[in-house]
């Protein structure tokens, strides 16, 4: 993998959080060049939407001038099937899943970073994502600033923390204390709102539109940004939320 040592590696999915990080970092005067990194998983329903979105956003960025096209380097795309499994990371993931939900993409990303010996690439986990409350509490309690990066401190004491650390010790977390609404407000101030609103978020799109059912669609509504969903998707999302509330009341 040919990466200049002075380049900042940012994991880019085409989603709101990672797109905000790409855009806001580009605006930093005299900052490092950016090398986006994308983990390709052909089994994921949103892969085509994500790659198309990234392409559209890059075209929009390049319209701003040569400074930005020079600073944003070509994206590295790594196929998940080409990454060797690492037993320590897999075992840690299994221990976490015994008590908490965690997406398998974090395992693949950790294995990717380990395999290619990358130094703390940025992962855009924001302040509050539905279904990951334990992870966010863990990260917020254990990140420390090192050379301007937010990374995990060590050592960890209890077994579950050690398991999380085994996976997330490879990343830096620039957005862990920033919400989606914070990013929206900052994008208006920075003049990057148009590009940010081009970002993609749905994991299971239907006919090219956000489904309103998946976690990211639910997160958009929770973040008071339901306006990003088409009307029908908003209706589906609202119906699901109401059904979930009814189930909670009935203890179903």
From TrEMBL:
InterPro entries with a match to the protein in the record: Rossmann-like_a/b/a_fold
Domain of life, per lineage: Bacteria
Protein name: 7-cyano-7-deazaguanine synthase
Source species: Candidatus Electrothrix aarhusensis
């Amino acid at each position: 993998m040919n990466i200049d040592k002075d380049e900042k590696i940012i994991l880019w999915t085409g989603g709101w959080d990672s797109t905000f990080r790409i855009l806001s970092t580009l605006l930093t005067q005299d900052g490092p060049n950016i090398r986006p990194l994308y983990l390709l998983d052909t089994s994921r329903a949103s892969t085509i939407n994500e790659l198309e979105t990234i392409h559209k956003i890059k075209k929009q960025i390049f319209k701003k001038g040569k400074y930005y096209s020079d600073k944003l380097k070509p994206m590295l795309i790594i196929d998940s099937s080409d990454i060797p499994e690492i037993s320590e990371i897999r075992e840690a993931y299994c221990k976490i899943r015994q008590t908490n939900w965690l997406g398998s993409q974090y395992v693949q990303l950790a294995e990717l970073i380990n395999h290619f010996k990358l130094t703390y690439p940025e992962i855009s986990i924001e302040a509050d994502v539905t279904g990951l409350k334990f992870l966010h509490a863990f990260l917020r309690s254990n990140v420390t600033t090192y050379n301007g990066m937010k990374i995990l401190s060590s050592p960890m004491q209890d077994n579950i923390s050690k398991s999380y650390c085994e996976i997330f010790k490879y990343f830096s977390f620039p957005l862990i204390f920033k919400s989606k609404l914070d990013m929206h407000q900052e994008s208006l101030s920075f003049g990057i709102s148009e590009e940010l609103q081009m970002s993609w978020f749905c994991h299971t799109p239907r006919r090219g539109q956000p489904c309103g059912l998946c976690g990211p669609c639910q997160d958009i509504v929770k973040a008071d940004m339901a306006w990003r969903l088409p009307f029908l998707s908003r209706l589906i999302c609202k119906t699901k939320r109401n059904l979930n509330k009814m189930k909670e009341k009935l203890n179903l």
